[in-house]
User: Fold this.
Amino acid sequence: MDQDRTDYDFIIIGSGAGSVIASLVLKDAGKTALIIEKEATFGGSTALSGGVVWVPCNAPGREAGVRDRPDLARDYLDACAGPLTKGSSRARRDAFLDQAPAAIDYLRAKGMKLVHAEGYADYHEGEYPGGLPRGRAIVPAIFDMNDLGEAASMIGWSPAVPPVMTHEAGKLTLYGRTLASKKTLATVGLRMMQNRLRGKRLVGIGLSLQGRLLQIALRNDLPILLDTPVTDLLVEDGAVTGVTVMRNGRKTVLRARSGVLINAGGFARNAQMRAQHLRQPSDPRWTVSNAGDTGEMQQAAMALGADVENMDLCWWVPGTLLPDGSPNVSVFEHARPHAILVDQQGRRFTNEATSYVRQGLDFYARHQAEPAIPAWIIIDARHRKRYMFGQAMPGKTPETWFESGYMKRANTIGALAEQCGIPADALRAEIDRFNGFARNGRDEDFHRGEGAYARYLGDPTHRPNPSLGTIEQAPFYAVAYYPCDVGTCGGLVTDEHARVLRQDGTPIAGLYACGNSTACVCGPSYPGAGASISASLTFGFVAARHAARPNDC
Assistant:
């Protein structure tokens, strides 16, 4: 790209999921667009994610035999998102339902390879109308970073990350307990051998999504600037007409004739904003979002009068804090048999096998009444023998976990309760009650294990319910659990064209937003895996189409 150029039709701040598609749309319209990323690597939090995209009525699902309909999708999204709000208006929901499948078709035509995430059910299937047991999630195919050539250095990559697609993780973490698990272990093992012995750099999850998007961007000569933080939005005659950036150690003004799109993430790494806006307690050390998720672009838009909503919400994924203090988010550990989550009084407070965002909400709801942050995961010997826990293989627990106090271990529930500071009688009573549910195969308190998503998270070899197993075989283990997150999900209020709105509902001319910079169209819910990425892709697509031809929208 021309490093000295300072004028474009459209400027996109951030390089997350919605950025490349927005830039492509502008180019197809005969306009110029520039992607600006403040970090030294491309991809934002999307590159660190599972790379899943939740899209109703999507073509890869249809090709795999998934039967979906627009009315089912609308019913399900409405049930999940709840009452209409400014950020989750009827117009925005309808725009998402209509444009999400169109955005996927557009990307596939550009070379994106996506497949149905078989087994990844909609999170609230069986609970809300319109949920699909086979789900609406799609994932990128495995990608070889070598295909990027020298540009591979633009994306952070570590050979320690296994080349796995997100929907394979359930089978993989069963570690050979089923035939499907054995096949998945062999498949992933073969990919790892190709990396080690044949010089390939195969990647999955978020790296494969962003890697292929970067490849598409480079093939289409889309200009991208890395290591270029935006310091301010340029406003002229009440309209946003560009940005001021720090480039090569000096401030530079970049102009945008058709507008600016904020796709810069949220504020998960900003301690002051977390303290001001999020539910408490909250700590930036609990997030696994990217280092640049610091909220300054949201603040810049708010300084122009932008309205915000749901600033107290995160994409919560409960997890533990490892002995070195780093967060380890968890999905499977607490949903597998022989495990429960309890508050500091020893009482269960959530369905351990539902949406992780719902679980985060449950953490804070319980904490208002009884101390629940941290909570505790309680497991028995069979869980530790059969299932992975974090990065620890079944039956192989690092001694440092016990030495540091990260994992507690005892031969009786009473002794374990004492180590955790939990009333022993209360914990025994709760486990006795839960064990009765597990033997009968029905959780009368939280309905764990009743939906397709819970069955996916569970162990299909366990009966009568793949998610419920008694906690009765010593030794018993406990680890403190926190409402960790993968980013914030409240932010700028936007309309159906992704235009940023003021508190009076009028748009700020020239300013668009998508992704975690905005109040999500899903409201305080997470309908299925990849709902955050799909909203970013969709409204990046929508914003660019409006900016390219505002009179046609």
Notes: The first strand starts at residue 7 and ends at 13. The domain at 1-157+201-317+487-553 is CATH 3.50.50.60 (FAD/NAD(P)-binding domain). The chain has 16 helices and 23 strands.
